[in-house]
Amino acid sequence: MKSNIEILLGEWGAWKRGENRSSLGYPGQSAFQRMRVDGQRRADPYALMVDDDLRKVDEHIARLFPEAHVVVVAHYVWPGPVKAKLDRVRATRTRYYDLLEMAHKQLSHWMGDRYQIPCVVPAEFILSGHLV
User: I want to staple 68 with a disulfide (CB 3.0 to 4.6 A). Which of 2, 21, 64, 120 is the partner?
Assistant: First the structure.
């Protein structure tokens, strides 16, 4: 299951890719202008709403250290499979996912309560048997 920060970063990536051509703020069309009322069943285009959380995460991504910034942009904005992104970033798969995980944790910390990643302590780090 995706965490809230991963969902927010997915929305951020869609905005950065240009799926929302309007600048920060309201979309160019309302969802009601795109609605079909003739009874046809078809998927309506997705209207991305840019809100304060996207603005805030955009500012925080710019504050990440350069390697993590590039990996976040690669993962959420650049098209293509991870293999192509690894070649373009010039990182190993392990390094890529370590940087991505670190960026998720840092961004979730900066974004606050709703985006906190739950801390799960592996069993090997529990020092006392009575804590289990």
Answer: 64
**Which helix H or strand E contains 106, and what residues bound it?**
helix 93-111
Collect all residues with Cβ–Cβ distance below 8 Å to 103 and sequence separation of at least 6.
61, 64, 68, 69, 71, 72
Token digits for 113?
């309560």
pLDDT digits (tens, 9 = 90+) for 56-77: 999 999 999 999 999 999 999 9
User: Which of 111, 104, 94 is closest to 52 using CA atoms?
Assistant: 111
Contact 81, 93 (CB under 8 A): no
How far is residue 61's CA from residue 59's CA, in Å, rounded to a whole number?
6
pTM for the predicted model, two decimal places: 0.67
In terms of Cβ atoms closer than 10 Å to its own Cβ (0-12, 13-18, 19+), residue 108 is buried
Per-residue pLDDT of 3-50, as tens digits, reads 888 988 998 998 888 765 545 555 555 555 554 444 444 444 445 555
